[in-house]
Amino acid sequence: MDSVTTYEVIRQTIMTTLISSAPVLIVALAVGLVIAFFQALTQIQEMTLTFVPKIAAIFVTLALSLPFIFSTLLQLSDRIFDLISNGGV
């Protein structure tokens, strides 16, 4: 296995990780910003107001995006297993 193949496998793994985690991270960021704006506008500084809606949104997003995450990780594992079976590793 040469260095180009190694770097390509590492690049694909990092990109797959970023793409798989993107839906949950984007929803967490959006909900956090909405809650921060709401707290700034209303002067309510309740700690549970920041965590409970964000955790609920993350769980819902995770449940809805699990098929996407699974298919993305399955594509990466298929590529890696094909590389192994072809003697590239």
From TrEMBL:
The chain crosses the membrane at residues 18-39, 51-74. The keyword Cell membrane applies. InterPro entries: Bac_export_3, FliQ. Keywords: Bacterial flagellum, Cell membrane, Cell projection, Cilium, Flagellum, Membrane, Transmembrane, Transmembrane helix. It is found in: Cell membrane; Bacterial flagellum basal body. One of its GO terms (cellular component) is plasma membrane. It is a multi-pass membrane protein. One of its GO terms (biological process) is bacterial-type flagellum assembly. Pfam families: Bac_export_3 (PF01313). Belongs to the FliQ/MopD/SpaQ family. Role in flagellar biosynthesis. This is Flagellar biosynthetic protein FliQ. The gene is fliQ.
